[in-house]
Write a structure and sequence with these properties.
By secondary structure, the chain is mostly helical. It is built from 12 helices and no strands. The protein is globular, with a radius of gyration of 25 Å. This is Carbohydrate ABC transporter permease. It holds the Pfam family BPD_transp_1. InterPro entries: MetI-like (IPR000515), MetI-like_sf (IPR035906). It is a multi-pass membrane protein.
Length: about 290
């Protein structure tokens, strides 16, 4: 017969758990409020009232936003930038980091020094804008993709992770006649799936939440990303910036606050939906590169 020893909770533990529970509740209340207001029926909505549960449920705000050309254009722009940008980020980051792990690579110290240099020094906003302008990328989706193909932090973490992989596996593959590209595609990539999943989430969230670069590089409102459009809804006082609603047979005027909250929910929903599927690989991928075995 076995007995499982249980730790006796102290007064400190109770205070600690209570404070953590209160902090958690305070943190989640804004999300509950945004969710509740977005689903509140326009007829039942009362300004300056705190909603935890909608008095009357309604999809009017979502129907209004999804029927506008502005929102659909912003959604398409964001999806394109996120998908294309994330794929290119993964390709450039992992190939570059893998090259930096090879000590016999010509010019490796210079390239590694340049990567580390950018961790400390940055050109700033104005030189970056002038560079994008000289490249002819203004008012183009590529202005949000090319300048951020990778980052020094990503390269260093991925390099550390790749260096932790057993070198014997690569040697065995080369003995079997595998080329350098074959080793990378058949050995390194399969072993790097947790890290790839983690950085896919990092890059995807970064592109999905792109706001400042889109604000300064995209002057055409039809090419705005979702975050720029949400900004105009949440901050600007005139909700007509959303665009004209499509024919839906609903002549009621949707309150501006419900439109704002619904747009915030729609902007958050894709990332919240994808994260649970990558959570396991995300946690594992973050830790793998921290210790070199």
């Amino acid at each position: 017969m076995s007995f499982v020893a249980t730790k006796k909770l102290t007064a400190f533990d109770y205070v600690n758990y209570t404070l953590l529970a209160l902090i958690s509740l305070i943190s989640i209340f804004p999300f509950i409020y945004v969710f509740s207001v977005s689903f509140t029926d326009p007829k039942a909505y009362i300004p300056l009232k705190f909603y935890l549960v909608p008095d009357q449920w309604s999809l009017s705000a979502y129907k209004y936003i999804l029927s506008t050309n502005s929102f659909m254009n912003a959604l398409k722009s964001t999806v394109f930038v996120t998908l294309v940008g994330t794929v290119l980020n993964i390709i450039v980051s992992f190939t570059f980091a893998y090259a930096l792990t090879k000590k016999g690579l010509p010019g490796r110290p210079v390239m590694l020094g340049a990567v580390i240099f950018t961790l400390v020094f940055n050109a700033g906003i104005l030189p970056s804008y002038l560079l994008v302008k000289q490249l002819g990328l203004l008012n183009s989706y590529w202005a949000l993709i090319w300048p951020s193909l990778t980052s020094a932090w990503s390269l260093i973490v991925i390099k550390s992770f790749l260096e932790s992989l057993p070198a014997e596996l690569e040697d065995s593959a080369r003995i079997d006649g595998c080329s350098d590209l074959g080793v990378f595609l058949r050995i390194v990539i399969p072993l790097s799936m947790p890290a790839i999943a983690a950085f896919t989430l990092f890059f995807a969230v970064s592109h999905w939440n792109t706001y400042f670069n889109a604000l300064i590089y995209l002057s055409d409102s039809k090419k705005w990303t979702l975050q720029v459009l949400v900004k105009t809804l949440v901050i600007d006082s005139d909700s007509t910036g959303v665009g004209q609603a499509g024919a839906g047979g609903d002549d009621r005027i949707v309150p501006q606050e419900t439109i704002r909250m619904a747009s915030i929910m729609l902007a958050m929903a894709p990332i919240l939906a994808v994260y649970p599927f990558l959570q396991k690989h995300f946690a594992k991928g973050v830790m793998l590169g921290s210790i070199k075995g």
